Amino acid sequence: MTTVEHKVETFDSLNPATDEIVGTYPVHTAQDVADAVARARNASAWWQSLGFAGRTERLQRWKGTMTRRAPQLAEVVHQETGKPHADAMLEIILAIDHTAWVAKNARKVLGPKRRSSGLLMANQAATVEYQPLGVVGVIGPWNYPVFTPMGSIVYALAAGNAVVFKPSEYTPGVGKWLVDSFAEAVPEHPVFQLITGFGATGAALCRSGVDKVAFTGSAATGRKIMAACAENLTPVLIEAGGKDALLVDEDADVEAAADAAVWGGMSNAGQTCVGVERVYVHEKVYDAFVAATVAKAKGVRAGGDADAQIGPITMPAQLDIIRKHISDAIARGGKALVGGVDAVGDRFVQPTVLVDVPEDSVAVREETFGPTLTIAKVKDMEEAVAKANDSRYGLGATVFAKRRGMELARRLRSGMTAVNSVISFAGIPSLPFGGVGDSGFGRIHGEDGLKEFTRAKAIARQRFRAPITLTTFTRTEKTDATVAKLITLLHGKRK
Ligand code: NAD
Fold first, then answer.
1. Are 70 and 92 in contact (CB under 8 A)?
2. What is the mean pLDDT of residues 69-80?
3. Residue 342 Cα, ligand 1 centroid: separation in angstroms?
4. What distance lies between CA 248 and its chain's CA centroid?
5. Which CATH number is associated with domain 10-240+445-455?
6. Buried-most residue among 84, 327, 342, 427 (CB within 10 A)?
7. Cut 0.85: pTM above it
8. HSE (side-chain half, CA atoms, 13 Å) at 105
9. Rounded-to-10 torsion of CA 436, 437, 438, 440
10. Interatomic CA distance for residues 454 and 461, integer angstroms
11. Which ligand 1 atom sits nearest the alpha carbon of residue 241?
């Protein structure tokens, strides 16, 4: 008998600040993925049988573990993405808060609810409840490796699904930490599993027959995910990139707006899906805003040391894109008031503030994903809204205004808008999060985020036999005439 030895292919996770190897992980094959999904299917039956109360108790246990060991998880995030420890803590804290919210609210949002059965069906008791889909595949990015996938993972779990998670190939260690800590809280069955690898492993998950795929990443990959999922008619949730705008009205608090622009654009080295990338400022406050932004941006430094406010660019290939956006903007008449092409180094990019950049240049149209901002002067907020909305993306947005904040927020073509603060919507667990256009569709977070991982189940239970029964062949002409009269009385009024 010959034994065939299968050599497991592996890949290394590197520290982007130093290129040191942080960990080595298997490149899971389509068969590995199929096996994980089969295990998840069994586990999901058990997880569903626990009901809301049993799942809540276990999610709270997991939340406790994450909270107590948050610094340890932050260290893994720091090593794999390069982001400062404090920023890693911030995304972990937000993820913990979301976990607390779903644990508390899943039953209220998804449990059985009575609905009015209407006059024609008054003899029926109508109920709706939101049942789990079964197994959900989650494919995550590297930029917020805890907060972003957890927006799908904990909502899918709380709704009663098992989850198979493929983290980004840049942050497999963070995925492993999450799955291992969950297994401590829920040791009985593999309700939440990890698969690791590159795009092909993700594509295998899309084709594996899972009941839904929740994807967060670039719009280009989102298209491939949809194509792969189409083969089995697997539904998808797409959380893709953005080119978020910040609007500054003439009556805005200019200092606060500049602070929001600099933090919104440059924190996490600009690698934030809902980060500020473009700014449109009313001409009356333009000069003051630019001066404040430049002063603040000059105080931000990228580096690998503990004092640097922002870390390296996690994905080396992104450096070329950032360089191209800046050089193209300058070649087309733009001016760098802070930074410039030289701000792009081998690993780190220093803050860059660009003005006078043509609206049709890549720095204004494409996702830069670096610590850069373009600032444009507008004559009024109509022009600001029109320019902000002239984008194939529509993820988040920000408005700084006293009088017209809510009005402008409503008119922006984006899934979320913050008024007089920045990215605040992401930290409010009860608010839905998701995009428009190339930023994707479907919603994570909040009630909508829970329902995203369920199917609505409608039940009509007859309470008593109705005097007029419509669903029978023994229906008489008299019945039809009575119903016609009734419907005219109910709905036939001219006004
Ligand atoms: P990416 O699209 O390169 O990769 C995302 C994930 O998809 C990774 O796990 C990757 O391995 C996997 N993948 C790649 N090819 C695949 C394929 N053919 N089939 C299945 N899976 C495949 O994105 P990224 O660089 O990791 O993340 C950055 C992007 O994510 C940015 O565009 C950012 O704006 C976006 N993002 C969006 C949100 C949001 O909530 N909307 C949040 C964070 C990041």
1. yes
2. 97
3. 28
4. 25
5. 3.40.605.10
6. 84
7. yes
8. 20
9. 50
10. 22
11. 34
DSSP E strands in 349-474: the ranges are 352-355, 372-378, 393-394, 397-400, 418-419, 436-437, 440-441, 454-462
Nearest by Cα to 193 from 40, 32, 11: 40
Ligand 1 centroid vs 167 CA: distance in angstroms? 9
Q: Tokens at residue 462, please?
A: 């007859």
Cβ distance 435 to 283 under 8 Å?
Answer: no
Two structure tokens written together for 493: 């009024």
Closest-CA residue to 275 (of 427, 396, 362, 405): 396
- Does 10-240+445-455 match 245-426 in CATH topology? no
Q: Can you list the alpha helix ranges (DSSP code H) found in 21-69?
A: 30-49, 51-68
Q: Which two tokens stand for residue 65?
A: 């573990």
**Quick check: helix, strand or coil at residue 10?**
strand
Q: How far is the CA of 168 from the centre of ligand 1 (A)?
A: 7
**What count of other Cβ atoms lies within 10 Å of the Cβ of residue 404?**
17
- Helix or strand (DSSP H, E) at 240: none
Predicted local distance difference test score (pLDDT) of residue 494 = 85
Q: In whole angstroms, what is the distance from residue 436 CA to residue 244 CA?
A: 12
- Structure tokens that stand for 11 in this block: 């890949």
- Residue found under tokens 């109705």: 466
For the chain, the structural domain boundaries read 10-240+445-455, 245-426
For 270-307, what is each residue's pLDDT tens digit?
Answer: 999 999 999 999 999 999 999 999 999 999 999 999 89
* Residues belonging to the active site: 239, 273
Average pLDDT over residues 463-484: 90
- Collapsing DSSP to helix, strand or coil, 437 comes out as strand
DSSP state letters, 345-371? -SS-B--EEEES--TTSHHHHS---SS
